[in-house]
Every structure is written in C-alpha cells, then in structure tokens.
Automatic annotation (TrEMBL):
This is Triosephosphate isomerase. One of its GO terms (biological process) is glycerol catabolic process. Homodimer. It comes from Tissierella pigra. The lineage of its organism: Bacteria, Bacillati, Bacillota, Tissierellia, Tissierellales. The gene is tpiA. The active site is at H94 (electrophile), E166 (proton acceptor).
Length: 247
C-alpha cells in the first residue's frame, strides 16, 4: 500500500514572515495522518519553517539543489546545506527549472544521486509540452526523461524517490489533464520504471501536478495509479492546502 503524498510547491512566494503565518494557519487545522504532507518553500524560509514544523507530521522540502557539496557555484545551494537545515525532500527537474534555468536530463540525474547520497528524498518532475502532446509523442518524451533521470540509480533507492508527472501545458494555466488522462500517464510511468526495476514499480509513489485544487483532488486521488499531487497555487492558501491533504 503506497502512502498518499501531497506536496505544496510555494515557488518564489512568501517572505519569512508570510511563510510563518501560512504555516501557523495550516497547523490550526486537523490533518489526515494517513497522508504525507510536504511544504517546499524558498531557500530563505527553510530554517524558520523547519522550526515552525516541530511537533507536526508535515515534512519540509526545498525547490532545487546543486549536485556538488561545495565550490565556486555562485547562488547555488548544496546538499550538505539542505541536510544541515533538516530538509526532508527536494524538488528536482521542475518544468520551470528546465524552461528558465537550463535544467537538463543530465543535471536532473546528478541532482538525484547527490540528494540520495545526503539523505534527501528527491521529487523528480517529468512532463511534456502542449506541442509534444498534440504531436502524439508525450509517452516518448516522458519515457526519455525517466530513463535519463534514473541512470545509475539502484533499486534500493526507489523507496526514497517520488516521481511527479507535470504536463507543462497544465501548470499555472488553469488547464488540467483529465483524471483518466493523468492516470493513464502515471500508469505508463510506472510501467517504464518496471522495465528497469521489475516489481519495485509497485512501490514507487507517483504524483500528478498541474492546476490541482480542492475541486478536482478527489477525482484524481480515486484513480488507481495516482498517489498524490505536487501542488502550486493551491498550496499558498491554507484552507485549500488542508482540503487537499484531507481529500
């Protein structure tokens, strides 16, 4: 049985003060203890949010990582830094990182390995553009992203990896893949993992991400292959995020 997982990606939102106010509001609600909840906050907020999350079941996530432990990489954050701050999860390969900051399948692979080596759990993002979907090559694109990302990753590591399928055309646009379409793609991703790792495919958790909100979360979570959601805008409103966790 795979534990459902809801991760909020705050993106470049919330000062430390705003972050703590949001966390306190989230904490004021009763959360479903059978769902793993994560908040992936800006680097500036990590330390303060970590303290605020003490004595809760909510996990802390970062939004990016560099694969090297240290060095001349101005503006980057290393796995050692995140580990010391008590970070649990880290988003890797988000479509915005790929689109705006030249993230590649190769750097995604390096970041996954580095995260695992430092006790961090990667949330690995994959997904196709609208042009790729309309051209009928979405499966080819996603399969390539998965195979490149998991090069050199051992079977034992799959228990500490989450995959997030984000159709790029559905992120922040208000468009959402139908629950059936999302379920079919997640099933395809699971089969792709199975080609490499066999029955271990049944253990890895796969999320859907793309304009997920309280009004569509139940339909998505009712699908067999969907283990959770990577959520953007809805995670910035306490009641909405809580409703997602308590779907």
């Amino acid at each position: 049985m795979r534990t459902p997982i809801i991760a909020g990606n705050w993106k470049m939102n919330n000062t430390i003060k705003e972050a703590l106010e949001l966390i306190e509001e989230i904490k004021s609600y009763e959360l479903n203890k059978d769902v793993e909840a994560i908040v992936c906050v800006p680097f500036t907020c990590l330390s303060d949010v970590k303290k605020s999350l003490e004595n809760t079941e909510i996990k802390l996530g970062a939004q990016n990582i560099h694969w090297e432990e240290n060095g001349a990489f101005t503006g980057e954050i290393s796995p050692k830094m995140l580990n010391e701050m008590g970070v649990d999860y880290v988003i890797i390969g988000h479509s915005e990182r790929r689109q705006y900051f030249n993230e590649t399948d190769e750097t995604v692979n390096k970041k996954i390995k580095s995260s695992l080596n430092h006790g961090l759990k990667p949330i690995v993002c994959v997904g196709e553009t609208l042009d790729e979907r309309e051209s009928g090559i979405e499966n080819d694109i996603v399969k390539k992203q998965i195979n490149k990302a998991f090069e050199g990753i051992e079977e034992k590591d799959l228990d500490n990896i989450v995959i997030a399928y984000e159709p790029i055309w559905a992120i922040g646009t208000g468009k959402t893949a139908s629950a059936s379409d999302a379920n079919n793609m997640l099933g395809f991703i699971r089969e792709t993992i199975g080609q490499k790792y066999g029955e271990k495919k049944d253990h890895i958790r796969i999320q859907y991400g793309g304009s997920v909100k309280p009004s569509n979360i139940k339909e998505l979570m009712d699908k067999e292959e969907i283990d959770g959601a990577l959520v953007g805008g809805a995670s910035l409103v306490a009641k909405d995020f809580v409703d997602l966790i308590n779907f």
